Amino acid sequence: MRVLVIGGMHGNEPLGVEVVTLFQKNPVVNIDVVFANEPAIEAGCRFVSRDLNRMFPGDAKSSNYEARQAAELLRQTKEYDVVLDFHNTYCPDNDCGFVGSNSDKTLLDVAWFLGLGRIIFADYDCINKFAPNCLSIEVSIGSQQNSASLWYEKIKILGRQNIIDTTIDIEKYRFVHRITLDEKKNLNLQSMDLKAFQPIASGIAKQLGVENPAYPIFVADKFTPYNYGGLLKKLN
Ligand SMILES: [Zn+2]
Q1: Rg, the chain, Cα only
Q2: Cα–ligand 1 centroid distance for 160 (angstroms)
Q3: What Cα–Cα distance (Å) separates residue 110 from each residue in 30, 99, 162, 213, 217?
Q4: Which residues does residue 175 pair with via DSSP β-bridges, in sequence order?
Q5: How far is it, in rounded angstroms, from Cα 217 to Cα 62?
Q6: What is the C-alpha to C-alpha distance for residues 114 and 110, in angstroms, rounded to an integer?
Q7: 185-222 tens-digit pLDDT
Q8: For residue 13, how far is its CA from the centre of ligand 1 (angstroms)?
Q9: Whether the predicted model's global pTM rises above the 0.90 cut
Q10: Confidence band for 163, pLDDT divided at 50, 70 and 90
Q11: CA torsion sign, 65 to 78 to 133 to 157?
């Protein structure tokens, strides 16, 4: 299958930039790569003026760089069977894949093939919402999976597959809530030692207005200090 690898959707998250660089130095048939936000990568920051992964579907005629770049990236995704978009988080044990609600069913098989045990359906204005063939890959900074050479090898093998079909039922979640800094303060969440994919107390779920059980992700992530994390609902 033809694969596009996106690195640097958030310019300060290193894994994707390293994976793209590896493929540039050692090209592989069927695998193309692209840096999503080059000015942000060069500046070592998440974005220049707007978060690129909240700008989809983008606008080719916008005066805003990230709006134009979102449109351009979305155009490029249409030429591939699968698009892999890399991210990092400081939250431990947070490795997972993100897809849109209307994503290709085969993306779950691709995620499993790549060694991801959990998939999250997200419908905010991220690339996955508009590119049904795009799997975003979130890897914790401290994870064994935070290795560009490991992903280089896995993606190389993926490019040689015609079809992936598995009966393995990957864990599925839906993104339901972004925890604000106010909620963190008002509910004293810091004292509760929230951990990725470990359900929060039912009373706290109720106070946050989400269904119980709710599963946190991106807790206290240094890459996104303007919120305290996200909450998921488990689907299977
Ligand atoms: Zn990111």
Answers
A1: 17
A2: 27
A3: 15, 11, 11, 27, 22
A4: 232
A5: 32
A6: 6
A7: 999 999 999 999 999 999 999 999 999 999 999 999 99
A8: 6
A9: yes
A10: confident
A11: negative
Give strand pairing partners of 98. 120, 136
Q: Which parts of the chain are beta strand (E)?
A: 3-7, 31-35, 82-89, 96-100, 118-122, 134-140, 171-179, 215-217, 229-234
Provide the edge-to-edge strand list for the sheet that holds 134-140: 31-35, 3-7, 82-89, 134-140, 96-100, 118-122, 171-179, 229-234, 215-217
As given in the structure block, the two tokens for residue 193 are 């030692």
Q: How far is the CA of 2 from the centre of ligand 1 (A)?
A: 23
Residue 225 CA to ligand 1 center (angstroms) comes to 12
List the shell of residues around ion ligand 1, using CB closer than 5 Å: 10, 13, 87
Distance 88 CA to ligand 1 centre (A): 6
